[in-house]
Design goal:
seven-stranded mixed sheet, alpha/beta, single chain, 12 helices, binds pyridoxal-5'-phosphate
Length: 387
């Protein structure tokens, strides 16, 4: 890599990222190239974003076609790609309406606002507490950090937005005890904690949670920012469970590589917002939505079945490796607990032409969901060796 790039980056860009020392400059599907011309199999898709890989012809032509018409109109006017995407999201999920924003954190912020307003109107403004799970990740804004159930993110930024509480995943009595002394608006979960180490919630716990919120008249929100859009072998991860969320948030893969956030509202809460209650300058941008329509239209039942099958094959392969202590996740969202430190494994993978992610002490794999099986298997061998 050009040393100058690293120097300019450290001189001019805020120090928030500890980057790997490569610059990706081009790609084709699940194969990417760096500035030295070295090739990599992409098992991270830019943290679950490039759902159909790099330089995808169909997505690109949808985006370019819209770019040739108009790039932005604002939410003062009607916008066809945006309506088309919302209709498709409703038809595919069964939820009723969507609010569009630009990132996962914003999609969650909207979810919190819907929960607060709905609870205040239907039960009283004292029902404001939003409960999330320990070890969760919901984003980086001050309020999304307050929702994130990991203390190390909180330390430097006190006071955070009040009105959030965290309970242990898998422990329904902790939630029951909290509910006995706190007036709760909503419980919000990730079905698979991504950033927290690719840890799926137990079906049994999700059933208990579902019954509990129903009995207590508490809203259920699901953060599908990472798990959504086909990643786990279903359109949304909650569909792997017997669940009907009241609100879901999604982002990352939905845009296929362009920034988008979406908060989907069930019939129950679909009309909680009135004019002026939320907004976003860029939300529902026509270029982004035209691309997202293409992405969503291609998450077919056949592709989802293939994600499940390829995920199963990788899961089985990794489970046989003696240097991998645990394999977690669903579909093409896979967590591996290596015997070595995860960062060392990723460095070794980079040397050998594979891009992988970490999550806590785990290796996290989020390849483009249409990656051919042979490429997945080739990458899996290199990853297993590096563990
Ligand atoms: C990435 C992520 C977010 C934050 O998304 P941004 O687009 O970075 O704001 C929120 N929730 C989950 C589960 C995520 O994985």
């Amino acid at each position: 890599m050009n040393n100058n790039l690293q120097e300019l980056d450290s001189q001019y860009i805020a120090n928030t990222y500890d980057r790997y020392k490569i610059a990706l400059v081009s790609g084709n599907g699940s194969l990417l190239k760096d500035s030295d011309g070295k090739e990599y199999i992409d098992m991270g898709s830019g943290i679950g974003v490039n759902l159909f890989g790099a330089n995808d012809a169909e997505w690109k032509s949808a985006v370019i076609e819209q770019l040739g018409k108009i790039q932005h109109t604002s939410n003062l006017y009607y916008n066809e790609p945006c309506v088309k995407l919302a209709k498709m999201l409703s038809e595919k999920s069964g939820l009723a309406k969507t609010f569009f924003s630009n990132s996962g954190a914003e999609a969650n912020e909207c979810m919190f606002k819907v929960a607060r307003k709905f609870a205040a109107e239907t039960r009283g403004s004292e029902y404001f507490t939003i409960v999330t799970l320990k070890n969760s990740f919901h984003g980086r804004t001050l309020t999304a950090l307050a929702a994130t159930g990991q203390d190390h993110y909180h330390e430097l930024y006190q006071p955070l937005t009040p009105g959030f509480a965290h309970v242990e995943a898998g422990n329904i009595s902790e939630l029951e005890e909290l509910a006995a002394k706190t007036k709760i608006a909503a419980v919000i979960i990730e079905c698979i904690q991504g950033e927290g180490g690719v840890i799926a919630l137990e079906k049994n716990y999700v059933d208990e949670l579902k019954n509990f919120v129903r009995e207590k008249n508490i809203l259920l929100g699901v953060d599908e920012v990472q798990t959504g859009n086909g990643r786990t072998g279903k359109l949304f991860a909650y569909m792997n469970y017997d669940l009907q969320p009241d609100i879901i948030s999604t982002a990352k893969g939905l845009g296929g590589g362009l920034p988008i956030g979406a908060t989907l509202l069930s019939e129950k809460v679909q009309d909680v917002f009135g004019h002026g209650d939320n907004g976003s300058t860029f939300g529902g941008n026509p270029v982004v939505c035209a691309g997202a329509c293409n992405i969503l239209s291609r998450i077919s039942d056949e592709l989802l079945a293939q994600v499940r099958e390829n995920g199963r094959i990788l899961h089985e392969y990794f489970s046989k490796q003696s240097n991998i202590e645990q394999v977690t996740g669903m579909g093409l969202m896979i967590g591996l607990k290596p015997t070595k430190p995860a960062r060392e494994v990723v460095d070794e993978c980079i040397k050998n032409g594979v891009l992988a992610l970490t999550a806590k002490d785990r290796i996290r794999l989020l390849p483009p969901i249409n990656t051919p099986l042979e490429l997945l298997q080739k990458a899996a061998e290199i990853i297993a060796k590096a563990c």
